[in-house]
Structures are given as C-alpha cells and as structure tokens.
C-alpha cells in the first residue's frame, strides 16, 4: 500500500474592507488566479523581499578585492540596451528620433 504524505497547511484569516477585497479580486481575475492563491503569492513574495534585505553576503578578502576591481573598470556598452535607449518612447511624437 502506497503511503501518501500528509499535507500541512495552516489557516490565515484577515478582515479587509470591501474596497480592498474588490481590488484584490480584480487583480486575481486578471491573473486567472483565485483570491486565496493571489493573496498567498503576494504575501510570500513580500516576505521574501523583506528577508532578502537582511541576508549578508560573505566572501573571502581575495574575492572582495576581485569584486572591487571589476566595479572599478569602465562599463562596457550592451548593444541591446544601447538600441533600446535610442528608441523613441511610444508616447513621444517626434521629440526624439531613433538612430538606425
């Protein structure tokens, strides 16, 4: 007989104003997600962002010196980024011409 692993999930309850629920439902609908999935994903993403702000980056003194040397070098242009920067914005009307 195959064993099934027990799924551990914990309920989370919130009281939100109607306007908040309406905007969450609209956004979830645009993503084709349920309210629960949308809120869970947004909350987890926000929590990860907060936690990532405080994670130290550790490296050896040699590695740090190599990193500083790379930062001190002049930047190399990325052709794709140069091309994008030269494009006119869709809302601009002839103010800036693309150099082709």
Please summarize what this structure is.
This protein has helices spanning 18-31, 35-52, 61-72, 79-86. With 100 residues, it is an all-alpha fold.
Structure commentary:
The model has no long low-confidence stretch (mean pLDDT 89). This protein is mainly α and 100 residues long. The N and C termini lie far apart (68 Å). It has a domain at 18-86. It is built from four helices and no strands.
What radius of gyration results from the CA coordinates?
24 Å
Please summarize the sheet with the most strands. none
Overall spatial form: flat
The N- to C-terminal Cα distance equals 68 Å
Q: Counting H and I runs of at least 4 residues, what is the number of helices?
A: 4
Number of strands: 0
Uncertain regions: pLDDT < 50 for 5+ in a row?
Answer: none
Helix content: 40-55%
- Strand proportion, as a percent range, falls in under 5%
Supply the helix-strand structural class.
mainly alpha
SSE string, helix = H, strand = E?
Answer: HHHH
Overall pLDDT confidence: 89
């Amino acid at each position: 007989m195959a064993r099934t692993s027990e799924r551990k999930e914990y309920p989370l309850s919130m009281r939100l104003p109607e306007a908040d629920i309406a905007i969450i439902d609209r956004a979830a609908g645009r993503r084709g997600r349920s309210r629960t999935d949308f809120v869970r994903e947004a909350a987890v993403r926000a929590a990860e962002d907060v936690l990532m702000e405080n994670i130290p980056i550790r490296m050896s003194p040699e590695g740090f010196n190599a990193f500083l040397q790379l930062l001190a070098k002049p930047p190399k242009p990325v052709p794709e980024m140069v091309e994008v920067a030269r494009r006119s914005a869709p809302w601009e009307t002839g103010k800036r011409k693309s150099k082709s």
